[in-house]
Amino acid sequence: MRATTIHAPGDIRLSEVPDPTIEAPTDAIVRVTAGCICGSDLWPYRGENPIREGATIGHEAVGVVEAIGSEVKDFRPGDFVVIPFCHCDNTCPDCLAGVQSACPNADGTSSGQAELTRVTQADGSLVKTDGMPDDALVPSLLALTDVMATGWHAAVAAGVREGSTAVVVGDGAVGLCGVIAAQQLGAERIVAMSRHEPRQALARRFGATHVVAERGDDAVAAVMELTGGIGADAVLECVGTHQSMDTAFHVARAGSTVGFVGVPHGVELPLRRMFVRNIGLAGGIAPVRRYLPDLMERVLDGRIDPGLVFDLELPLDEVAEGYRAMDERRAIKVLLRP
Amino acid sequence: MRATTIHAPGDIRLSEVPDPTIEAPTDAIVRVTAGCICGSDLWPYRGENPIREGATIGHEAVGVVEAIGSEVKDFRPGDFVVIPFCHCDNTCPDCLAGVQSACPNADGTSSGQAELTRVTQADGSLVKTDGMPDDALVPSLLALTDVMATGWHAAVAAGVREGSTAVVVGDGAVGLCGVIAAQQLGAERIVAMSRHEPRQALARRFGATHVVAERGDDAVAAVMELTGGIGADAVLECVGTHQSMDTAFHVARAGSTVGFVGVPHGVELPLRRMFVRNIGLAGGIAPVRRYLPDLMERVLDGRIDPGLVFDLELPLDEVAEGYRAMDERRAIKVLLRP
């Protein structure tokens, strides 16, 4: 089959690789109908994470079950499924506690930028739709595999509540989905931090009531003015750099929580400030499976439309151009059709 | 009046200093009937925090109101009061959100190792008993000014719940009070980490169901064995060193929260682990006033007896010996009578 591989920073190829096979009786093979490129795929692309030459890349996909292992009970070939980027058995103590991303019994992630992908612990990992979904819903269902669930996790971790003021740091797909999450969880004021006009517009469409285009101290000052000098009730940190984390802790009010979902790179936490002002940190890799059934309902009944984060659609053949477009911020998020 | 002053590492004196006076109409002056030495007083004593030569030291006291400013409404001379180590107006947005320790309208702490002490924002800060309390209750009431409220804050921040497994890192007075808090909040298993037999015994008396005497990797292994390899539901970090924080994050289960109340010294957080395993960090300086009315009830009706952490009582004259005893771990906590 054809799958996306990375060979060096900036070197993305569509390669011929062996088809995935059922390796454990709990596995399933899914034929990908739509995959996409994640902001976290850009870390190795930019040389900021180590690369194993020729490794497949990509971890977000939806598609149709092609084959199942002998112990898979809840899925059949032909089912349309959403694949959480981290697999899980959904029965172990960690999963039952809602931390499916830490499940010790599932193995890695699917390679979503490919024609076929293997899902471990299929019964625990997958969620299916009732029949084949309308094609117009596919982008939003695809967004649930990672970015929408991750933005949701940031909002839950930050403790967004009815009537609260939430600040979203980061205007990538995850940050924009964080705006959706804050809106759905009842935040009254949602401040999106963004300097990019198309992303500002999308943030407003998703429910942002304020946009702060400044960065650093000026951004902090803007939020402080908005909140009467008190700071935000909940802060969603959706980037993972030192600067974004620092901004997050400086706009968070005393006693609040920064929900963080951006893979941390070079971050040094302001521990003294956290201690003196009782600002907590919560979050991490999103337990996608925990939120997936609820989020799927919200997509199917039209309450949320996270698929709008895909502003470029390409055939899988052009995956390298997709990476370039995201790297150069010409696209927020790229959808790939095999 | 006589007050404790610090002049250099290890150099504690009882000195003659000017009596405190009403400086703002919201102030009160309290005649101290009992004060004590805090673990955090040992940081400057050991030269690990900067010292202003001749500065007063100590911040925990109970006593009788001696004088009030013109705007103090709720207290009269003669009232017996418990003084939270951090003052607060208890009416600002931060106080109303339960973060009285971040109140911007109160000024510092009382100097509790002295004959008299000034309390700012007296109406917001102080809590009085109904008449003069039985002398036997004074140690427990004194413990509420800091250590008991701080241990309680660790348990609340860590999210201790009915039926949960809580680990308390640290067997100082705060850690021991953390055991009390975990017990009161319904933890089913409470693991006290302690190598010191008298402290182990007190931890068990306060409700610890298990004691782990090991440190580092061995301590982690012991907790993992106790929890079937999953880790603790809630971890109370009551020390503030790098090693204690590291242990805390390694015994915490995925998705849990480390509640931290030990002033952090030289701590580097395991951010990658926090992210991958969704282990949060919450806590900081305890908002004593938030918990004080409830904790006072628990003391008065005998549900808790945190005064047992005082295992040495000295006249204020002998304050220097009190510091030595705590520094050498001959005493858990020293009560001082002016």
UniProtKB/TrEMBL annotation, chains A, B:
InterPro entries for this protein: ADH-like_C (IPR013149), ADH-like_N (IPR013154), ADH_Zn_CS (IPR002328), ER (IPR020843), GroES-like_sf (IPR011032), NAD(P)-bd_dom_sf (IPR036291)
Keywords: Metal-binding, Oxidoreductase, Zinc
Cofactors that this protein relies on: Zn(2+)
Top-rank taxon, per record: Bacteria
Domain Enoyl reductase (ER): 7-336
UniProt record similarity statement: Belongs to the zinc-containing alcohol dehydrogenase family.
Protein name (Swiss-Prot/TrEMBL): Zinc-dependent alcohol dehydrogenase family protein
